[in-house]
Amino acid sequence: MKIISQIFTILFITFWVLFLFVDYWDKHPAYSLAIEYFEYSGLIVFLLAGGAIFTWAGNQVKKRKKPLRALNGLSLGALFLIMAITSAGFGYNKIDASGFSGVNAAHALVLIGGNLLALFLVVMLAYALGSFINEKFHLPSKTSMDSGLLAICSGIFGITAIAFLLGAVSMLHSFVLIPVFIILLVLLRRQALHFIKISCWSALHLDKNLNALGLFSFFLLLFLTALNFAAVNVPMPAGFDALTLYANLPTLIADRHGLVEGFQPYNWSIFMSLGLTLFNSVEVSFGLSWL
C-alpha cells in the first residue's frame, strides 16, 4: 500500500509540473525561441559537472559518523555566490565580446554579496523579533525548522507593522528606522546571535535516506535560486512588470517617507520599500520581494 501511495505521489507531481510548464509555455509562446536558439551549453556542462561533484561529496559526508563542521550555512552561502557569479558571467559573455574578466567578477561579487548581506541583516532582525513575538504568544512549532520559519514570518509581520505605524505619521526615514532596528537588535541580541549561529556556524546534518537524486536536485534548486537572485541584481530595468507593478508602490512609499493615499492595503510593498529606505537600493528592494 505504501508503494502504491509513493507511485501515485510521483505521478501526480510529474503531471502537475508538466501541466504548469505547458500552461506557462502556452501563455508565453515567444519563449520557445530561447530553446530554439539555446546558447548556454557551457552552463549546462558546469551544472552537470558541479552537480556530480556535489552529489559525490554529499554521499561521502553521509558516511561520516559525525557531521562535517565545514558543511554549514557559510559554505552553502559561498557556493550560492559562486553559482550566482558564474551564471552572471555566462550571461555577460553573450552581450559583451570582451568577455567576463576578473574585474567584472569582482564587481559582481561586491554587488551580489553586498545585497545578500543586506538581506541577511533584515532576515536576522525578522528572526530575532519573530522569536520574541512567538515566545510571548506561546506559538507552538513541531520542529526547529518550523520554529525558525515561523519566527521569520512573525518577524516580517512585526517589521512591517513598525514601518506601517511610522509611515502613518510620515516618519519612514532611514535616520528613524536604523536606530529603532539597532535598539531592537540590542534588546534581542540573544535571538540574533542564535540566528547567526544556526545559519552560519552550525554543522548541517544530512538525512541518511537522502539519495543521489535528492542531492543533485538540491544542487539544481540551489543553482536556480542563485540564478534568480543574480537576475535581481541586473544593472538595467528588469521589465515592465517589475518596475510598474512590484517596485512602483515601494518607490512611492520610500520617496514620500510614508503611506501613499489611494491604494489598497499593501503590507508587502511597505516591506519592500525598506530596501530603498534603509539601503537606497532597488536591488535590495527586489531582493526582499525575492525572499
Please explain how this structure is put together:
With 291 residues, this protein is an all-alpha fold. It has 13 helices and no strands. It has helices at 2-27, 32-36, 41-62, 73-95, 102-137, 144-168, 174-187, 189-201, 212-232, 240-246, 248-256, 267-279, 282-290. α5 (102-137) crosses α13 (282-290) and α12 runs antiparallel to α13 (282-290). The model has no long low-confidence stretch (mean pLDDT 84).
Major β-sheet profile: none
Portion of residues within helices: over 70%
Number of E-state strands: 0
Q: What pattern of helices and strands is seen along the backbone?
A: HHHHHHHHHHHHH
Termini separation (Å)?
Answer: 38 Å
Give the count of helical stretches: 13
Oligomeric state, counting identical vs distinct chains: single chain
Structural class: mainly alpha
The shape, in one word, is globular
Mean pLDDT: 84
Rg from alpha-carbon coordinates: 22 Å
Low-confidence stretches: none
Strand content: under 5%
Keywords:
globular; mainly alpha; 13 helices; 291 residues
What is the structure about, briefly put?
The protein is built from 13 helices and no strands.
What's the SSE blueprint?
Blueprint lengths: L1 H26 L4 H5 L4 H22 L10 H23 L6 H36 L6 H25 L5 H14 L1 H13 L10 H21 L7 H7 L1 H9 L10 H13 L2 H9 L1
Helix pairs in contact: 3-9, 4-5, 4-9, 5-6, 5-8, 5-13, 6-12, 11-12, 12-13
